[in-house]
């Protein structure tokens, strides 16, 4: 299998504009993410996919591969799908551009899903992490996921799922981490399908894959990513690097 990593990188961000070009210990956030993906040695190729000439120059000057997005996109899957349509690849990993501290173990687990899937029944693999804090469980910004006994996703929601009606039964809650591994064809099928009703309601792109019949294997991880969504997150990242 040829496995490539795609790092979608929009310059604009509502909560923290230009965050990917902010300095993080002498390098930009996006460059650190790109170099971290390379250093895992998990991928045959690593690309940054962007609509920004500023980000393009930053990565190209460092010797990296960049694909410019031709059109505006509503989600990361669309941006990646446009970029990979004519690339030679079997498995495509979506690496978040604002998470420069990549968890190699989790990415390896996602890749392993497809190595073990000899009948090619799985279309996507993604990550989930257990949450126990009630505020986190009820927070609609945290997308929750429920699975069947084989860890195939049943549904994703911003609501609290499952509903804990019988308090005598122990229930676990899982947050969906937006790190995906795709079969290339699943990504292209998503791209060619208009936004589906439940996806539009919840504003969760994973639901479109389910609504068009794709199987999503969930892999549990205990590692919470260090994402950079705010200036405060950037300061935390600098402390993490002991800067």
Element layout with pairings:
Elements: E1 3-9, E2 23-24, E3 27-28, H1 29-39, E4 45-50, H2 53-61, E5 65-68, H3 76-84, E6 91-94, H4 104-116, E7 124-131, H5 134-138, E8 144-147, E9 153-157, E10 173-183, H6 184-191, H7 197-202, H8 206-211, E11 216-220, H9 231-240
Helix pairs in contact: 3-6
Condensed summary:
This protein has helices at residues 29-39, 53-61, 76-84, 104-116, 134-138, 184-191, 197-202, 206-211, 231-240; strands at residues 3-9, 23-24, 27-28, 45-50, 65-68, 91-94, 124-131, 144-147, 153-157, 173-183, 216-220. It is α/β, with parallel strands linked by helices. Helix 3 packs across helix 6 (184-191).
Description:
A 7-stranded mixed beta sheet has the order 5-4-1-6-10-7-11, with helices on both faces. The chain has a two-stranded antiparallel sheet with strand order 2-3. A two-stranded antiparallel sheet has the order 8-9. The mean pLDDT is 93. Helices cover 32% and strands 24% of the residues. With 243 residues, it is of the alpha/beta class.
């Amino acid at each position: 299998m040829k496995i490539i990593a795609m790092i979608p990188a929009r310059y604009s961000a509502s909560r923290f504009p230009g965050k990917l070009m902010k300095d993080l210990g002498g390098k930009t956030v996006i460059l650190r993410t790109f170099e971290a993906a390379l250093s895992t040695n998990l991928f045959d190729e690593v690309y940054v996919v962007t609509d920004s000439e500023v980000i393009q120059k930053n990565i190209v000057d460092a010797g990296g591969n960049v694909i410019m997005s031709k059109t505006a996109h509503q989600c990361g899957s669309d941006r990646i799908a446009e970029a990979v349509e004519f690339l030679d690849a079997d498995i495509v990993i979506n690496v978040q551009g604002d998470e420069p501290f990549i968890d190699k173990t989790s990415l390896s687990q996602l890749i392993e899903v497809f190595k073990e899937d000899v009948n090619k029944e799985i279309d996507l693999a993604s990550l989930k992490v257990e949450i126990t804090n009630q505020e986190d469980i009820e927070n609609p910004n945290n997308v929750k996921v429920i699975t069947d006994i084989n860890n195939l996703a049943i549904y994703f929601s911003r609501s609290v799922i499952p509903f804990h009606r019988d308090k005598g039964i122990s229930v676990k809650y899982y947050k969906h981490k937006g790190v995906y591994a795709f079969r290339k064809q699943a990504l292209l099928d998503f791209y060619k399908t208009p936004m589906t009703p439940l996806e539009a309601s919840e504003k969760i792109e994973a639901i479109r894959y389910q609504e068009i019949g794709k199987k999503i294997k969930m892999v549990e991880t205990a590692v919470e990513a260090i994402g950079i969504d705010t200036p405060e997150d950037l300061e935390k990242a600098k402390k993490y690097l002991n800067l």
